[in-house]
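Design review, sub-item: ligand-bound model
Attendees: FS, YL, KQ
YL presented the inputs for the adenosine-5'-triphosphate complex:
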Amino acid sequence: MDNHNTENINSNFIKEIITNDLLINSKKETITTRFPPEPNGYLHIGHAKSITLNFGLAEEFNGICNLRFDDTNPTKENMIYVDSIKKDIEWMGWNWHNNLYFASDYFPKLFEFAVTLIKSEKAYVDDLTQEQIREYRGTLINPGIESPYRERSVEENLNLFKEMKDGKYEEGSKVLRAKIDMQSGNLNMRDPVLYRIIHAEHHRTQNKWCIYPMYDFAHGQCDSIEKVTHSICTLEFEDHRELYDWILDKLNIHHPKQIEFARLNLSFTVLSKRKLMKLVDEKHVEGWDDPRMPTLSGLRRRGYTADSIKNFCTKIGVAKRQNTIDISLLEHSLREDLNKKSQRALAVLNPIKVTIENYPDGQIEYIEAVNNPENPNKGHRQVPFTKELYIDKNDFMVDPPRKFNRLTLGSEVRLKYAYFITCKKIIHNPETGEIDELICTYDPNSKGGQSPDGRKVRGTIHWVSKPEAIKTQVRIYNPLFLKEKPDESTDFTLDINPNSIEILNNCYIEPSLSATKPGDIFQFERLGYFCADSKYSKDNNLVFNRAVSLKDSWSKINQIK
Ligand code: ATP
Ligand code: MG
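KQ shared the predicted structure:
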């Protein structure tokens, strides 16, 4: 394995906290965690880390993991995202059983909580504009200034808040704020906004509500309603924990423990829904499920397996400090998984014609090929061999360097599973000067690639039968970003790799792949792992995505030329 700085999930600090909590509190036998996505985009590999952690902990401690949609902003959310998120979590192999919730289901309860805070003089309606609120908040150096509306009576606040709910006011004209401390060293505690007015249709509650809770108000209270025991979130919420605790204390309701961990950052990748949305909207990619995207739908389409993603998330572990994981570790997980599972096949991506001049015209001979050397139970298949074949262009060189152990003029190589061949002649295209065809001979006594007399050949190359092979398109993906940390650029779209996709239209695969279905994954021998594309593959017209190359060539930037 590459030399990556990983921490083992088996010893992560969150597990230690949970184990201790269960020991101390003998009444609690198990835990409840939750995964709380906002349905405003598709899930990405960062979410997979959170999913694996939350569902994984629940499984390990015999507890429950709720799937709760944090749908508190009607302007950005919709059902398409809800459905895609569910699909991705199921694909990962997790099950929320009956524990599917929506923050919007709690709107009446959350409203009641807000009223309780008003009644205990812990919240007030403020008429300052958004900009004024920001100005009055102060900075880390300067204390904030109290709003002139801060001392409204309980009765007035209750009335105004009800009127806000009843739609009497314009967006932005009023908000409900917590009454905490404008001098606090934690900016989140300087009378944070709890509710704002939004006149927009919500994808579930339609027009029933026109006031919506802010994340900080909704999140903790939803956790509490669901009797979550451990509310695990990413580090940017560390500064919000004081507020999380404050509201729960003031309401005197079930109080989950918030624990923060470092979010996943991946080299050569952006992992923020806002940025991924920009890639889609500005058509830098073909959609959320473009195989170059780090979304779960994109990775799946490219050929990533759920196991490979789970293994990756487990391997990288859970840390308390920010770091960036090398993308080659993600690829490594995929190779490791597919090496065990995938059916092998012969394919030629950049064909050059080979004619075996001493092979009988019109003959088709079936050669036995191994389906998966890692799993002998997978058996063998028959691959047709004929006089005319294709080999890959880069397996032949006219003027090879000394260590080149593939085919050259006058040299002998093994065609995998088949025969030894020797190149006798190169035929050039008279117009372009390019190589049109290689004339070779074969040794009939080397069937199965076995040496007839102990003589050695320099190498083994792959091939397909020209008349029997199936023509396909293959899509090779290169990194979407040229910079290791595109997130740090002022405009990350300037770092997009203009050559992130190469489309090869003249590729050939062995005929045993004729029944390939979208989503099927193969190892094309010596080339990498390839997945039949679920969007572009049609019955007689297969399109393959290269999921990952066979070897880690990240440093060189993968390219098949
Ligand atoms: P983004 O920053 O991509 O927009 P988000 O945090 O706004 O993500 P949510 O839908 O709110 O997206 O996330 C659901 C859960 O997934 C949250 O608990 C969040 O902390 C977690 N999560 C999001 N991104 C990552 C990441 N890169 N690594 C680990 N967990 C993440
Ligand atoms: Mg969020």
